[in-house]
Amino acid sequence: MRVRFYQVECGDAASISYEGDDGNVHYLFLDAGYERTYRDILADEVKTIGAAGGQIDIWVISHIHDDHIGGIIAYLKAIEKGEAEDIVSKWWYNHPHVQVKNAGLRKCINAISEAKSFAKGEQLTSYLVRTGHLPQMDMVQLHTTTGPAGLKVTVLSPTARALQQLREKYRNTSLRALDYHELTAISEPTASKASDYHQKVDSFVLDAFTEDTSIENGSSIAVLIEQEKKKVLWLADALPSTIMDALRDLGYSADHPLEVDLVKVSHHGSCGNNSSALYSLIRCNTYVFCASGDNKHQLPTKECLVRILKNQHRPEHSEYAFLFTHDNATLRSIFDVDGSAIFKSLRFKMSFSASKCLEVHC
What we know:
InterPro entries: Competence_DNA_uptake (IPR052159), Metallo-B-lactamas (IPR001279), RibonucZ/Hydroxyglut_hydro (IPR036866)
Keywords: Hydrolase
Helix content: 25-40%
Number of domains: 1
Pfam families: Lactamase_B
Number of strands: 16
Mean pLDDT: 89
Protein name: Metal-dependent hydrolase (Beta-lactamase superfamily II)
Number of helices: 12
CATH class: Alpha Beta
Strand content: 15-25%
Radius of gyration: 20 Å
Organism: Rhabdobacter roseus
Order of helices and strands: EEEHEHEHHHEEHHEEHEEHEEHEHHEE
Largest sheet: 8 strands, mixed
């Protein structure tokens, strides 16, 4: 299994490719970053797959924030201009409007088409309705899909209630008024406004935790992906309490944790989306952070990294790897105040990607 994480600054975009039990190479895409992410990176990826006669079996769009859905909008624009082909077999996307679910398809198309300007979520919804690819059921907690070709995908987030809260929030909002950027119009994620890289490892109070209250982040599709004996945990921007509930329902606990090969850390390493309690239920040696360090929320937070490193249930002799989709002085300075000895004492290393794609083989 090959996992590619694309450089999206503080955003998410990734793909998984694997040889199925049918002997063919299969693709699963996860989010798409910003519109420029498609133009600069994903357009070539999609074109290469299509030119080889392949298709993207599933494209998961976790939620409506611009750093996840923007690249899809650029892809749809390219399709409509005849500059790209739609090679996606199935789309996983929970639309934000309750009336889309309750209305007939034709009524939905007409309502969306009347808007002269579209918010990004509505553009995707409109396209999926017109092409007959709008999911007929919500992708909510513990929904499981087996296949294609030996792949198993289990939804850990959102809950049906969290998705309902998203739709209630936008129930009385006109299509043209929707704004999906993480600005003041949308619930702000619980993230540091100032960098915490100046704090020493031992200064963090790891049991003190305030969870992200963003309704949009709470609606994120987070999934456990399994192929043969390989497992990848994609946390999107999900809330830790939601993931914990799902893992417990699946039979996991601190004494019987979920063992995976790779974790895509939630919400770019925000301290409000990654609790010590969550990582007590997970065993993994490799963690990916999709963040540049140079962003308005100062993500990833050092507090998040320390919670993973100093988790009370971490195996005694485990060696951890933190992989970053970017490489710059900001990220490299995270543990400067602690000195180089911290890497040996906490048994971890950090790796940085200077290319447009961080590739991990499981």
